[in-house]
Amino acid sequence: MHRMTATRKSTLIGLLGGLMILTVTATVSHEHLATLFNLPGLLMVLGGTLAATLVSRPAADVLRVLKSLRTLLHDHDVSIDDELNQLLNVAHWHRAGNIAAAEQALDQVGDPLLRTGAQLVIDREPLDDIVKVMQWRIAAVRAKEQGDAHILRTLATFAPAFGMLGTLFGLIQMLGNLGHAALPVIGQTMSFALITTLYGLVLANMVFKPLAMKMERRIQHRVMVMNMIVEGIVLLYQRRHPTVIKEALTTYVLQQHDAAPAAPSMLKAA
């Protein structure tokens, strides 16, 4: 099987491990863990971060990204087996000149990019037009998903800023009450001032930024698979033997696994 494996559950392990480290540290350094929980400060950081992000990006895009966070908590293997087998099936009948059987095999293709490219080949469209259409679709997918990752990085940028804003509010309140407030009140106000900075840093560096990096990595994998499909369509157009297509695409995937998603094509000149 041609599969790029990822460590299962690594995201959950990382998040839970980081939470455990914070909990143990807080337990050792504080007698009362309740002092580290401040609902108004947390609402200020989360609400301000979300509000600023909604100002900078369309609300529909922000909500879509927030809904997709659940999927980022799970690690998935990136497999090309289905796409490769479907392409080889179409290539077998296309090379044999059996267009009816090739179109029937095309009905079993699930990937929209592969389906479009193979259909254009069967319809005998010029190769340059086929490649151009597929590259446009790849560019659209890349732009959309990179925009989603940028939203997560925007959240990571705003969270510490609103943490500092909460700190300023707390300090202003503390200084305003400094002349007549009791020490416990001053201490409580100072605690609120500092805890918001903690919330902002934790959210930015343990949640939003790591998830943004993971989404960017997934984008690289997906674009690599789509580029592989383009190379396969080129070989399909050239009526190469399915065995040649399989070996060429397997080699392509191995070479592109750790390369940039926009790496130059190696098979179009074949």
What does this structure look like?
- The chain is an all-alpha fold and 270 residues long.
- It has nine helices and two strands, in the order E-H-H-H-E-H-H-H-H-H-H.
- It has helices at residues 10-29, 39-56, 59-72, 81-95, 99-106, 112-122, 127-176, 183-237, 242-256, and strands spanning 3-4, 78-79.
- Helix 5 runs antiparallel to helix 6 (112-122).
- 26% of the residues are buried.
Q: Please report the number of helical segments.
A: 9
Whole-number tally of structural domains: 1
Q: What would you call the shape?
A: elongated
What would the average pLDDT be, to the nearest integer? 80
Low-confidence spans: 1-7, 260-270
- Helix and strand succession? EHHHEHHHHHH
Rounded to an integer, what's the Rg over CA atoms? 26 Å
Order the strands across the largest sheet as they lie in space: 1-2
Helix content: over 70%
Strand content: under 5%
- Main beta sheet: strand number and arrangement? 2 strands, antiparallel
Structural class of the helix and strand makeup? mainly alpha
Distance between the termini: 25 Å
- E-strand count: 2
Task: Map the helices and strands.
Elements: E1 3-4, H1 10-29, H2 39-56, H3 59-72, E2 78-79, H4 81-95, H5 99-106, H6 112-122, H7 127-176, H8 183-237, H9 242-256
Antiparallel strand pairs: 1-2
Helix pairs in contact: 2-7, 2-8, 3-7, 4-5, 4-8, 4-9, 5-6, 6-7, 6-8, 7-8, 8-9
What does this entry show, briefly?
By secondary structure, the protein is an all-alpha fold.
Defining traits:
270 residues; mainly alpha; two-stranded antiparallel sheet; 9 helices; elongated; disordered N terminus; disordered C terminus
